[in-house]
Amino acid sequence: MTEQREELRDTQVIVDLDKIEENMKLISRMAGTEISVMAVIKANGYGHGAVSIAPTLMKCGVKYLAVATLTEALELREIFPSYPLFILGYTPDRLLHHVVEKNITQTVFSLEQAQLLGSLAKGLNKPARVHIKVDTGFHRLGKEPSAAYADEICKICAVEHVEVEGIFSHLALVNEEENEKQYQTFCNFIEVLEHRGCEFKYKHIADSIATVDYPRYRMNMVRPGALIYGMRGFHIGFLPVQQALTFRTAIAQLHTVPKGEGVSYDYLWKASRDSIVATLPFGYADGYPRNLRDKGYVIVNGIKAPIVGVICMDQCMADVTDVPNVAVGMEAIIYGNGQDGSMTIEEAAKLAGTNKNDIIARIPARPPRKYISKNRF
Ligand SMILES: *Cc1c(COP(=O)(O)O)cnc(C)c1O
């Protein structure tokens, strides 16, 4: 076997590392020198491959690489022994020793968590680093600002061997009025805490959309995820980030389907004319939304070929009757940048009735990733 793993399958996720780098530089430049960037690479870097894109982000000088779970942090820590890592989510008490052992910065929202981290840190003879989470309305993680939570945070700040490095919240992005309410709630609470002697090096509330749309919410740290991958969810501001991902495959087989015959499970699509139907070796187990049946399409030889019939777990079919010189092995673009007529992530999200992050983050490990870069190869 001499092929690279990525060449062992025709269905591949191509990640343009130069685009990731350009996007990251645009974000850093927009943030400026006073604002630190926490680059969010949870869910395997939104499907792009966290471990493989991390060096590009590190090169751009991001302060932190952030993930959602301990498992994601440990995977990165194996490869990057010293780069600052942050866990945005909850880590159960029984697993907190890992974050201290591996120098991972943890989100906390209770004195009990901080005390446990403190005693683990003491035992391991190294500090535990945390950011405190405040719930300003989202009701996901963190506690709501209150006198009791203020007392609790003051106690957390006094726990030995625990370094409270930051405080953060998350916007629900309901509308401008609600955003402002959340932001003000957060700022007022920080003011109360600082008056009582708490200090926070980093204060942050902005995800990708807030970072671009609301400059004042950048505080002194921003947490972009989607932007890094070129997803343009903003609608007030603008940043010319570009989609870094292309999803492609190649035709496995061609069928001549006479008018009136059905294709795939339940024959839910029937040929309205004598047709040529291509079998494509990707399915919903490759993260392609199953509900794109009769909506999705691929680009073959520059022509739009509609996905026809039920999308199977590993394969689906496309009507390639109108594709000139269609042949087995011909490339089919599943998601592209749109310039070749291909379906963009944005369009896939719209057609599937979901959001862009869902479309990219759901692409599992099965299709191999292929990394391209003009600078490196
Ligand atoms: C996922 C996540 C982000 C990044 O969100 P994007 O919309 O992709 O920018 C930021 N903060 C928290 C807490 C998150 O969970």
From TrEMBL:
EC number(s) recorded for this UniProt protein: 5.1.1.1
Pathway(s) annotated for this protein in UniProt: Amino-acid biosynthesis; D-alanine biosynthesis; D-alanine from L-alanine: step 1/1
GO cellular-component term (any): cytosol
Xref: InterPro entries: Ala_racemase, Ala_racemase/Decarboxylase_C, Ala_racemase_C, Ala_racemase_N, Ala_racemase_pyridoxalP-BS, PLP-binding_barrel
Enzyme class, first EC level, given as a word: isomerase
Catalysed transformations (reactions): L-alanine = D-alanine
GO biological process, one term: D-alanine biosynthetic process
Residue numbers of N6-(pyridoxal phosphate)lysine PTMs: 42
Pfam families tied to this protein: Ala_racemase_C (PF00842), Ala_racemase_N (PF01168)
Positions that bind substrate: 140, 313
Active site: 42 (proton acceptor), 265 (proton acceptor)
Superkingdom of origin: Bacteria
Record's keyword annotation contains Transport: no
This protein's UniProt keywords: Isomerase, Pyridoxal phosphate
GO molecular function, one term: alanine racemase activity
Cofactor: pyridoxal 5'-phosphate
Alphabetical list of PANTHER family matching this protein: ALANINE RACEMASE, ALANINE RACEMASE, CATABOLIC-RELATED
Function: Catalyzes the interconversion of L-alanine and D-alanine. May also act on other amino acids.
Family under the similarity heading: Belongs to the alanine racemase family.
Protein name (record): Alanine racemase
Source organism of the structure: Emergencia timonensis
